[in-house]
Structure formats: C-alpha cells, structure tokens
Amino acid sequence: MFKVSRPTTPPSCTKSSGYNTAEIVKTLSQIFQGKCYLCEQINLSDPEIEHLVPHEGDDEKKFDWNNLYYSCSRCNSIKGSKHKNILDCCDSNTEIFKSLQFSMPGHPDHNIRVNVVESYKNEATHNTAALLERCYNEAATGLRGITRSNLIDKIFDHFCDLLILRQIIVNIKSTSSEIQFAKDRLAVMLESSFPFSAIWKWHLLQDEKLLDKTRDLIQPHL
C-alpha cells in the first residue's frame, strides 16, 4: 500500500453511467500510477475497480468517487466485502508507510510479513495488515495458489535486483561511479511509482549496513 493523492474534481460517476466508465478507469489508473493500491503490482492485465468501503448494495457508496480504488483482480477478490475499516491511502492525514512494516522472506514459498508499527496500533492498521498479508500470501485454492506464485515471482525479481545493488553499494571493491549508479537505481525503487515500493523502503530500513550508506535516499520518504 502506498500514498495516493486523489484529485478533488472527480469524473462523472452516476448510477446510470456506472462506476467503470472509460474515463473513471483511466483516471484511477493515472492517480494510482498503474498499481494495485493493495499489493502494489504494476501494469495490471486484469485491473478492477474496488470499493474501499464495501457498498453492500448501497448506491451512495457504490458510486462515490472517493470510494473507488484501482486494484488487481486477486486483491479485489481477497478483500471482497469481508475486510472493513482499513487504512485509506488517499487520506492525507493517514501515515500509510509509517504505520505498516513489511518484511521479505528468504524463500519464495515463505510468507511476506506485514506488522503494525507500535506507535500506530489501532483497529484500522491491524485490519489493513491482516488484509495485506492475505493479499501477498493467500494460496488456499488452486487459482489463488497460481496468482500467489505469479505475484511472488514479480516481487522476488525486484528483490534480486535490490540485493545486487546492495552488494555494489556496500562492497569495498566498488568504485565511486559504480556505487553512485547503484544508489541511483535504488532511489528509483523507493519511489511510490515503483512496484512494491513499501517493501523496498522497509527492507532498506532494516538493513543496517545498507542504510548507513543510503540514508540520503530514504530520508525524503520518512
């Protein structure tokens, strides 16, 4: 999950037009930078419009622009109407990144962990952490096992890139130009437009040796 700035002037969204018009889908894709607002994968081949607050047949919630979010089909299916009272990544007063700590596993078959940061403990952060752990790790059915495998492969592909950059940055044999190139690449991974950006920020913060050499990169995101 990542911070999103929603435009105050919404596209038309009415019961007669529906909430999945071309204009609405395009606008949501733009403001969410093409990423699922929950798992953060990008370039979705199966984007869906998700309701942050389940509408449960309530037309006001169903067609409320501020309740429409850009999601992949996996996360939309997992969240459904069961997960309620979660953090709103479009709320300027909500500290999304500081509230939830992400931890990468050492093996693709192990779970990504999402923990609530102590100073941000409340019902919404606990609910969000529980939902995100399901989004990243749920493999209870045959189809979800496949989509989980595809998702974790994408995450580990970027994780391998990060580890290569880390090796360059902390290696005493690296030249200054090699280190700067690696830091520039790492800086891109920390931007909210990059896939799974919250995971990479937290990985850097939990890697003392790497953090010592890249504090200038993470500071703007704190």
From TrEMBL:
A Pfam family it matches: HNH
Coiled coil regions in record: none
Every HNH domain range: 46-81
InterPro entries linked: HNH
Gene3D superfamilies, sorted: 1.10.30.50
Gene Ontology molecular functions: endonuclease activity; nucleic acid binding; zinc ion binding
UniProt-recorded name of the protein: HNH domain-containing protein
Organism listed in the record: Pseudomonas fildesensis
